[in-house]
Amino acid sequence: MDSKIVIIGAGKAGVALGILLKSAGYDIAAVCSKHKSSLKKASSYLDGFLTTDAVEAAKTGDIIFLSVRDNQIKDLCDSIAAKDGFKKGNYVFHLSGALSVDVLKKAEKRGAKIGCIHPIQSFADIKGAIKNLPGSYFGITGDKSVLLLAKRIVKSLKGKFLIIEDKDKPIYHIAACVVSNYLVSLINYAENLYKIIGINESDAFRAFYPLIKGTLDNIEKKGTIEALTGPIVRGDTEVILKHIEQLKKKLPDELSLYRELGLAATEIAFKRKSINRNTRKDLINILKGVKTDG
Ligand SMILES: NC(=O)c1ccc[n+]([C@@H]2O[C@H](COP(=O)([O-])OP(=O)(O)OC[C@H]3O[C@@H](n4cnc5c(N)ncnc54)[C@H](OP(=O)(O)O)[C@@H]3O)[C@@H](O)[C@H]2O)c1
């Protein structure tokens, strides 16, 4: 590929992106990071110009990724623009799902095209990112020519894309956070429940893991509505009542999340028509703690 890539921010996402683009044939012209130690780490994967000077790095490239943390992107972009680091014809991307492309406005004022390529994936470290990026979806945002390039880059990363309008990014990002971060919170919630009956976290997770995988397989095959199993979809109000009583007695702080997720499951069961209107009402009353017998 002719384009010269610059990675500014040699962290998890930036280094993985650089490595995968390099192996797809792109020329990685420069890698920049704040600390030399991060550059040293990156140098075991990437060659080229390694620098702590973001302006000098930006000057060497055509496609510039600002792969720093979300709260650092705007300041970094502004400071590079202020020192003439961007030029006409550059493409400047950030990788944030949460932020508008507007944080790159100063680069646009210097003649660059701006956009976002956000991997819908979570990386705990560089190795994990290299493993997980191929096959992932990417939310891409920008004008027509930016989208054209973004699609090419995503294809090189062996990914798939969703085009996200800038105004829709907040909702887009909420959904991605829920599915990743709150899944972690949910598993942690279940581990905490097992802890009080004497099963430690790692044993609990080992026991949950096949269940989680089985559930994901069902969702993949049937979709979320048909994949729901358990007492709510069976309309078993007695079991749900017992769950609530136990939580009230032993873990009152854990009750509110159980209630909210139970209400969500009740709506799924009703949509699926596995429970009728009356059972739905009974479940809602039990979950909300509404007394119905006077
Ligand atoms: N991690 C994920 O799961 C994930 C998933 C999707 C999208 N993203 C997005 O990817 C972007 C980067 O996230 P990350 O997780 O890769 O963060 P990270 O691992 O913390 O890496 C950020 C890097 O930016 C560098 N940096 C900070 N300020 C800099 C500056 N002024 N000049 C040059 N380098 C600078 C830091 O350098 P030093 O190490 O040298 O201090 C650090 O290595 C974010 O926009 C994030 O939303 C991340």
What's the short story on this structure?
The chain has about 290 residues and is of the alpha/beta class.
Structure write-up:
The protein has helices at 12-23, 36-43, 54-59, 70-82, 105-109, 126-132, 144-156, 169-195, 201-222, 224-227, 231-234, 237-250, 255-271, 277-288; strands at 4-8, 27-32, 49-51, 63-66, 91-94, 113-119, 137-142, 160-163. It is an alpha/beta fold and 294 residues long. It has two domains: 4-164, NAD(P)-binding Rossmann-like Domain (Rossmann fold); 171-288, N-(1-d-carboxylethyl)-l-norvaline Dehydrogenase, domain 2. Helix 8 packs across helix 9 and helix 12 runs parallel beside helix 14 (277-288). The protein binds NADP nicotinamide-adenine-dinucleotide phosphate. The site of NADP nicotinamide-adenine-dinucleotide phosphate has 27 residues, from helix 1, helix 4 and strand 6.
